[in-house]
């Protein structure tokens, strides 16, 4: 009985050692990321219509070496002026919610480049709607980059 127990223990220990030293290849599930397989290029998304405040989204990402290297999320008005450069809008929004586009646009853009995954981008407090739109649109741009489709994505908002 002692001999059988020793052999069983030795067999189990050997199996554990072999399992630990086994293949170091990642499974497809563990190696996939939101930015996996991105094709180099610039991918653009635009909203076709102005919102109730007179703004629409203009968003592009640049992919180099299969990774997002640049993210440019902005809102523009009919004349093409950027929301982040509208001092009056910035002041009004910051007064009401404590943050404006001067702060949250760069935060969102930086998070996407850092994480490479829209699902990992944290919602910016005070800019929830813009954060959610950013994440949704970023995913659409990543989908286009996976296909290598550089046609502008037009959103009929």
Q: What would you call the structural class?
A: alpha+beta
Report the major sheet: 4 strands, mixed
Q: Could you name the ranges where pLDDT drops below 50 across 5 or more consecutive residues?
A: 1-35
From the alpha-carbon coordinates, what is the Rg to the nearest angstrom? Answer: 24 Å
CATH topology: Sufe protein. Chain: A
Total beta-strand segments? 4
| CATH architecture type | Alpha-Beta Complex
Task: Give the overall silhouette.
Answer: globular
Mean pLDDT: 84
Query: What proportion of the residues is helical, as a percent range?
Result: 40-55%
Distance between the termini: 76 Å
What top-tier CATH class fits best? Alpha Beta
Number of helices: 5
Order of helices and strands: HHEEEHHHE
Biggest β-sheet: strands ordered side by side in the sheet: 3-2-1-4
Q: How much strand content do the residues show?
A: 15-25%
Number of domains: 1
Describe this structure in words.
This protein is of the alpha+beta class. The chain has a single domain, classed as Alpha-Beta Complex (Sufe protein. Chain: A), CATH 3.90.1010.20. Helices cover 44% and strands 18% of the residues. It is built from five helices and four strands. The chain has a four-stranded mixed beta sheet. The radius of gyration is 24 Å and the shape is globular. Residues 1-35 have low confidence and may be disordered.
Key descriptive features of the protein:
5 helices; alpha+beta; Sufe protein. Chain: A; globular; disordered N terminus; four-stranded mixed sheet; 157 residues; 18% strand
């Amino acid at each position: 009985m002692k001999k059988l127990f020793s052999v069983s223990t030795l067999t189990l220990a050997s199996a554990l050692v072999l399992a630990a030293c086994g293949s170091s290849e990642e499974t497809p599930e563990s190696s996939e990321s939101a930015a996996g397989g991105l094709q180099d290029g610039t991918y653009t998304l635009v909203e076709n219509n102005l919102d109730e405040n007179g703004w629409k989204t203009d968003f592009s990402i640049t992919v180099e070496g299969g990774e997002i290297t640049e993210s440019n999320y902005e809102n523009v008005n009919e004349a093409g002026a950027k929301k982040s450069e509208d001092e009056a809008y910035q002041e009004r929004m910051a007064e009401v919610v404590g943050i404006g586009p001067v702060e949250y646009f760069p935060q969102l853009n930086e998070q996407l480049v850092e994480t490479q995954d829209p699902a990992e981008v944290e919602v910016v407090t005070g800019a929830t709607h813009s954060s959610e739109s950013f994440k949704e649109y970023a995913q659409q741009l990543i989908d286009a980059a996976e296909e290598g489709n550089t046609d502008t994505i037009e959103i009929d908002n």
